[in-house]
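Hi V.,

Quick status before I head out on leave. The structure for the redesign project is tokenized and pasted below; the design run finished overnight.
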């Protein structure tokens, strides 16, 4: 299975207010193994960067003056993500910005290119309700080294997100490994280990009455606890 982990940096918070993508990065993992294939560009936004946004990512307009515009990298970006499962932390934010950029150059939305989009922020909230689920918080929770993340950067964040996602889904992978055996093989193994000389002792009437009384008592206690 091919997964692409994606992140962006922008000139501000709201695509609807004309803010633009200034950095885009994606890293590839196939069958839960990094391939070392990545897509990464800084982009000239043709507009100012909000001071608050610049404090977060540290990217200046001067640095971006000689960088390509989104339209120049759009075809290569589509080729890199095509038919993959796209994994993004807080997907509505990045998808909104990318679709805004695609709309400006009359390209179809990103959903029409990829197989699926997974939002790891939603996943984390479902798994850890009431907890902090930022990328930094998840790195701490899963013991992933994010010491190099003094500022937000799309490429580093995409790489960290890949590690976080693999940690979040490690239990699911274990279950998949368990199911590699067929039902017939599992049944045969169980039957091979089952003793053939077991003596079956049936409960007498008194034991059955005592057991039913115990169950009724438990049901009563459960109702009281609600």
């Amino acid at each position: 299975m091919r997964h692409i982990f994606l992140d962006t940096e922008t000139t501000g918070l709201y695509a609807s207010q004309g803010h633009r993508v200034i950095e885009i990065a994606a890293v590839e993992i196939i069958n839960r193994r990094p391939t070392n294939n990545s897509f990464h560009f800084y982009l000239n936004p043709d507009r100012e960067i909000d001071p608050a946004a610049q404090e977060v990512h540290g990217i200046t307009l001067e640095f971006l003056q000689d960088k390509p515009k989104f339209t120049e990298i759009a075809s290569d970006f589509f080729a890199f993500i095509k038919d993959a499962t796209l994994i993004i932390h807080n997907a509505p934010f990045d998808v909104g910005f990318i679709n805004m950029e695609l709309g400006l150059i009359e390209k179809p939305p990103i959903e029409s290119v990829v197989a699926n989009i997974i939002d790891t922020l939603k996943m984390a909230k479902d798994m850890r309700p009431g907890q902090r689920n930022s990328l930094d918080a998840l790195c701490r929770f899963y013991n992933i080294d994010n010491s190099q993340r003094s500022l937000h950067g799309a490429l580093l964040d995409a790489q960290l997100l890949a590690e976080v996602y693999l940690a979040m889904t490690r239990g699911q992978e274990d279950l998949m490994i368990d199911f590699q055996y067929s039902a017939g093989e599992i049944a045969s193994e169980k039957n091979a280990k089952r003793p053939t000389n077991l003596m079956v002792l049936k409960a007498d009437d008194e034991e059955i009455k005592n057991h039913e009384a115990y169950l009724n008592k438990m049901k009563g206690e459960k109702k009281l606890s609600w």
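Above is the designed sequence. The two ends are 45 Å apart (CA to CA).

G. will cover questions while I'm gone.

Best,
W.
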